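Design a sequence for this backbone.
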């Protein structure tokens, strides 16, 4: 990845080219969108908000021209601008100014909240909208002989009650991963090991510990009578606690001699036991806000 970061930093034209090409390729391979947004983040972190805005604007124009020629509609390019590049410019500017990864992630959560509110403004009832979008699943369930129509509709209705939060959490995590990737690239080029120390020291404000417990309760006892807004905010809160839990695992294992080996094991278990692993990391992140496992582990090692 260092070579790509170096290429982005060669000049504005290179940065615009990488941002544009990766954004267009993300229409086929969505994960490449992270690299596109990370490029904007790197420029903002290193050169400031003005450079980040210039790259974002030029990349938007380039994407619009391509989409106008290829699809006859340039407007989808605005999705890159408003959902990815402009938010990461704001986050990059804030991280550059505050030098606090924790505060930057907390700010990013605000974009997730805006996505939730935006769904209510544009869709009226997000749950109803998502139920309509997911309705074809009912037929697929029937054709596969997995569920009958009544059961399939019940499953779709349940999924629809969470989809607004899943969308918000997905955009939040995309922005955060892009920001952190940009920060990692910056460290690779100008401050080796800097991002590692920042991520290992990630700790959320205690207010998230107070909000996190009720959010988890909502997640576990949610029913048809639970307002969808609470479900959405609960999913969003779980996503930031998940990042805190991931930072705890990385931070503790880094203090162990075979940290890299254990990280491979952890990620393999994460892939195999995805739902359970997510909840373990969320719980770990929530508890760590109050207990601070990394500091306690360091003290134990020093005492020993």
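Sequence:
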């Amino acid at each position: 990845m260092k070579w790509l970061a170096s290429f982005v930093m060669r000049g504005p034209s290179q940065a615009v080219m990488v941002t544009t090409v990766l954004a267009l390729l993300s229409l086929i391979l969505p994960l490449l969108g992270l690299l596109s947004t990370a490029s904007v983040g790197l420029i903002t972190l290193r050169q400031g908000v003005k450079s980040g805005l210039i790259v974002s604007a030029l990349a938007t124009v380039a994407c619009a021209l391509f989409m106008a020629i290829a699809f006859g509609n340039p407007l989808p390019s605005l999705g890159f601008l408003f959902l990815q590049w402009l938010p990461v410019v704001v986050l990059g500017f804030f991280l550059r100014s505050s030098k606090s990864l924790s505060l930057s992630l907390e700010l990013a959560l605000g974009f997730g909240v805006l996505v939730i509110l935006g769904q209510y403004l544009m869709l009226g009832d997000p749950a109803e909208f998502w139920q309509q979008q997911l309705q074809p699943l009912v037929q697929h369930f029937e054709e596969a002989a997995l569920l009958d129509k009544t059961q399939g509709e019940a499953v779709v209705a349940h999924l629809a009650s969470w989809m607004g939060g899943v969308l918000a959490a997905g955009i939040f995590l995309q922005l955060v991963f892009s920001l952190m990737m940009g920060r990692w690239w910056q460290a690779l080029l100008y401050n080796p090991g800097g991002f590692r120390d920042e991520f290992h020291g990630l700790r959320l404000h205690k207010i998230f510990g107070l909000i996190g417990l009720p959010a988890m309760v909502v997640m576990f006892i949610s029913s048809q009578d639970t307002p969808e807004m609470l479900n959405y905010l609960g999913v969003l809160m779980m996503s930031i606690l998940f990042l805190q839990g991931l930072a705890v695992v990385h931070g503790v294992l880094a203090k162990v001699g075979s940290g890299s080996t254990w990280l491979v094991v952890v990620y393999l278990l994460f892939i195999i036991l995805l739902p359970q692993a997510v909840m373990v990391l969320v719980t770990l992140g929530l508890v760590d806000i109050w207990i601070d496992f990394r500091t306690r582990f360091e003290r134990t090692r020093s005492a020993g």
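The two ends are 39 Å apart (CA to CA).
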